[in-house]
Amino acid sequence: MAHLFIAATITTSVAAANDELVKLALPLYQVEKTIEYRRLDNGLEVRLLPLAQRQSVAIASQFAVGSRNESQGQTGYAHLFEHMLFKGSQNAPGDSYSQTMSALSGRFNASTFFDYTNYYLNLPSNALELALWLEADRFIRPSLTTDTVKNQQQTVLEEMATTIDNQPYIRPAMEFLLKQVQGTPYGHAVIGSKTDIEQATPESLNQFHQTYYRPDAMQLSIVGDIPNSTNKWIDDNFGQWIPPTHSQPRFTPLTVNRETITAEIVDERGPWPGLLLAWHTVGKTHQDAAALELVEAYLLQSRASLLAQSSLVDSEQLFYYSVPLTMEQFGVMNLVMVPRAHVSLDQLSLNITALIDQLANHSVDDATLTQLKRDWLQRQLSRLDNDLNLAISLSATQERDRLSPLTGPWERIQAVSNQDLQRVVKTYLQAGYVRLDLLPPWYIRWGKALLEWLPMGWSDSLEEQVL
């Protein structure tokens, strides 16, 4: 009888937790019901989300074009072209776009990734008609001159130098990771190569635009105070945009080697050793993507992650960070760690392997899984309070979630079981990983090795003086 009572208690507790999540997710369903969905005859996907008590609108436009679309000799074109779209169009030459938006107190920006390029802005709702006209003009009729191309080439090269080449370890580490998927659409950096950027011309960039900037590759989302004439303005400005006759490129999931690979790089500018670990996972369209997202949060991402908890007492790393990379057909879980003076890189690697083995051998309990789902849900709900973030999220909708952009991802998270977490850990994390040791000059390595042999109190004291 006792066993039956315990089983019934656990079942009741799980049901109560599920009921709590269902109630917590209600705002996603309520907001989603108010979205107006349209697909224009030319294939352009439109989502309008009117929100009460707003005096502004957020506009997000995402194109299914990124670095994976680039051909040999044209790496970095997607990112460079993103810059060009702020530098003039047929009816708004030069800096007219930026000047107009600034005059309207508008906030605007863009970003490029492997799979997509997105553009977003926030401005007063009484300027929406003008904004849609400007957006359509630059997306459909960009004006690329020799001077503006040269100017933006220099801007991109300066960005490359600042964020990559002038930072210790970054360039060789990036190239090493990309080499693991060499020969695939994901085998080169989003920012491209210096040579390809320098050799870009207005003609080659215009050809890139004509090939990949097309209405059937675009998602347009508008959130906030939406005037009644908005659909007419969209039709007037985007409706006559004719897609090219060639079809959009199609990509397939990457087949990767998950055996353990180890290597090291030495950078004379490196101030201290570091450890880079990476695990090849899956793309966002894969059936295991939701479970892996929760696993990453549990292991590395959240404040209550296993790694964070293990660092609360006698931390063996000075700091760590992890930025998950989830593309459409490929994913990477990664972790960079900087050791304490008395801790070796080998020890840090063993610590992470132990956490992964722990999760593979003993999956999380129901309460922990519920908390992981609750945390995921809270992050999604927070987007409802930020019109621009919400618009960007809507424009990044997967085709399978076309009519359920908010609840589709949640329902996949909700369906993840304890067994799913354990299975994906064994399949994608225990199978093998990439380890790259980031090493400073020999004299720093020698000093660090010496500190590892000293008593902990001595090494900690010297660590503070050195760092």
CATH superfamily of the largest domain: Metalloenzyme, LuxS/M16 peptidase-like
Percent helix range: 40-55%
| Largest sheet entry | 6 strands, mixed
Record the strand order, biggest sheet: 1-2-6-3-5-4
Give the strand tally: 12
Low-confidence stretches: 5-9
Shape descriptor: globular
CATH class of the largest domain: Alpha Beta
CATH-assigned fold name of the largest domain: Cytochrome Bc1 Complex, Chain A, domain 1
Pfam family, one: Peptidase_M16_C
Protein name: Peptidase M16
Family: Belongs to the peptidase M16 family.
Domain Peptidase M16 N-terminal: 53-167
Short note summarizing the structure:
The protein has 467 residues and is α+β, with helices and mostly antiparallel strands.
Helix-strand layout with pairing:
Elements (H helix, E strand, L loop, with lengths): L1 H23 L1 H8 L2 E4 L5 E6 L5 E8 L13 H8 L11 H8 L3 E6 L4 E8 L3 H13 L5 H20 L4 H10 L14 H5 L3 H11 L5 E7 L5 H9 L22 E6 L7 E7 L8 H13 L4 H5 L6 E5 L3 E2 L4 E9 L5 H17 L4 H18 L3 H8 L12 H8 L3 H12 L4 E6 L2 H12 L2 H11 L1
Parallel strand pairs: 2-6, 7-12
Antiparallel strand pairs: 1-2, 3-5, 3-6, 4-5, 8-11, 8-12, 9-11, 10-11
Helix pairs in contact: 1-14, 3-6, 5-10, 11-17, 13-17
Description:
There is one protein chain. With 467 residues, this protein is an alpha+beta fold. The chain folds into two domains: 42-237, 2-Layer Sandwich (Cytochrome Bc1 Complex, Chain A, domain 1); 261-466, Cytochrome Bc1 Complex, Chain A, domain 1, CATH 3.30.830.10. The protein has 19 helices and twelve strands. It has a six-stranded mixed sheet, sandwiched between helices. Strands 7, 8, 9, 10, 11 and 12 form a six-stranded mixed sheet that branches. Helix 1 (2-24) packs parallel to helix 14 (366-383), helix 3 packs across helix 6 (146-165) and helix 5 packs parallel to helix 10. The chain is globular and about 70 Å long. It starts with a helix and ends with a helix. Mean pLDDT is 91; it is low at 5-9. Keywords: Hydrolase, Metalloprotease, Protease, Zinc.
